[in-house]
Design a protein that fits this description.
heterodimer; A: 293 residues; mainly alpha; two-stranded antiparallel ribbon; 2 strands; B: 317 residues; 2 domains
Chain lengths: 293, 317
Amino acid sequence: MSIETFLQTLVFGLFTGGIYGVAAMGLALVFGVLKMLNIAHGELVMLGGYVSFWVFSAFGMDPFVSLAIVIPALFILGLILDRTVYRHIVRLLGEEKIKNSLLVSFGLTLVLQNLAQWLFTADERSIQVAYAGDGLNVFGVLMPYTRLGTLLVALAVTLALNYFLRKTYPGKAILATAEDFEAAELAGINIHRVYMMTFALGAALASIAGTFVTVTYGLSPSIGIIWTLKALIVIVLAGTGSILGAFPAGILLGVVEALSGTFIDPSYREVVGLVIFILVLIVRPQGLFVRNG
Amino acid sequence: MTQSKTASRFLPIAGILLLIFFAVWYPRYIDKQNVWNLFFLICLQITLGQSWNILGGFGGQTSLGHAAFFGIGALVTRTLWLNGQPFALAFVAGGLTAVTFAMLIGAPTFRLRGAYFAIGTLGVAEVLRITVSQKIPYISTMSGAMIATYDLSPRYHLALGLATVTTGAAYLLLRSPWSLGILALREDEEAAQATGVHVLRHKLLALALSSFFAGLAGGVFAYQQISYYPSAPFSPIWTFDALLITFIGGLGTLSGPVIGAIFFTVVRDKLAVNWVEFHQVIFGVLFILIVLIFPGGLVEAWERLKKIFMNMSLRAR
């Protein structure tokens, strides 16, 4: 096995991991703040991908530019879903809330997937930009511009989210609600608005991941559940409650998957994530990117 | 008073016997392919729903990967059976393999609270679905000799027997001392632990029963289908069916999954004719509404109606 193959695998693992990271940050944000697990997160990734695809095929707009349309579109869809479905669950407490969110979002997964199949057909689609074949060649390691672009945008999104959550007033309100919603409410934060905005923000992050999926892989109505699963494994890796830890954990999952795909057997790629998930639960259930458990 | 008591004890037994008699007699009387198929599906769905109910309804542990156990049962039974093993052996092996997988995922995730078990089961189901579809991408078909002698009625009777045994097992579980611990988990895990219930052991017991019957249901599916993709029984649709049936009927009740399965399968049969693509959306929305607004399902609706009726008759007196 040459060093170039190793580096090439590593680089592609990084690219994939960036997408995992963005998808997982949205799920971790909703889980950390609303304390409910949205199994339909992957369907938001899928729908975001479709918005990007249709904007590209109707107007020929570059997918990196059309993020300016895709993000607000899914943000609004997030607001609608929160108002119609999730606000009924947010009221519940503790275990009851998690259980109901699992059930309802599992049902929603089916609804959104079948609606997408009905509206967009089951055909596999993808965006082929003019520069899809071009890229950098660094000492024999290929880096397509599309892949580099997704990683750079993913990094920028992570930094922006970090800045938003730690330095701005609404961001601090979100973190305060995540920590203790009763204290936050007493301090004058409108927690229901925080919940609504957080859910919409999670949907917006999912749409960014969806755009990346459409550019680099393919899109079909049934991909949602796979992305939910990746995001779930990543947030368990990062430690539930760690929102920004999801990005490095995503990168880690991407790299490990890519390496095991190349060096063990590509058809067992999916099993690796599950094995990691179980190992982490046994050895370090508080997650890898949390300082104290 | 005593009269009504014996009547209330006798009535359910009579009802069950009548139901089983009808299930044996009716398909034979009509003897049409689609009736056999519909009745077969109902029995399969009763088993799936009831087995989910043992864990999710009685034990309060939400599994989102019931399809994993169903799929493993189907895969193991089909593989052994088509490779010349006797069906009975393959059938039991399928159930036991499903239990083994369930223990592997249950033991680490049940130690932790929250959604870990649900994530774990969902993960196992999806990973198995993807891996099986990559490793065995071709259709599994019965041999020509098997198709030549193919008969639906023994397959249906096996499914009917399994549905009866699963419901019977759920009943016996409720009557056993184990049920107190399992029901206590659902109500309040911490209080159960504080009063000396071995939480992990009870969770694993409920999971073992649940996955065993789901695995056997998979075996029945493998026995009935002439040809199918080996990854098909791993589809999340099967998990969703089990959930929906339990919630339509009544979560945590013995008769809920039976009523739910009959209602769901018959209605879907009618809907699928007219709205092929749309019926999953309708059932998805129905499921969300039941969970949010009416978590008691049909069984609770019936109890409420009965109460209203009894109040009215009391007042009339």
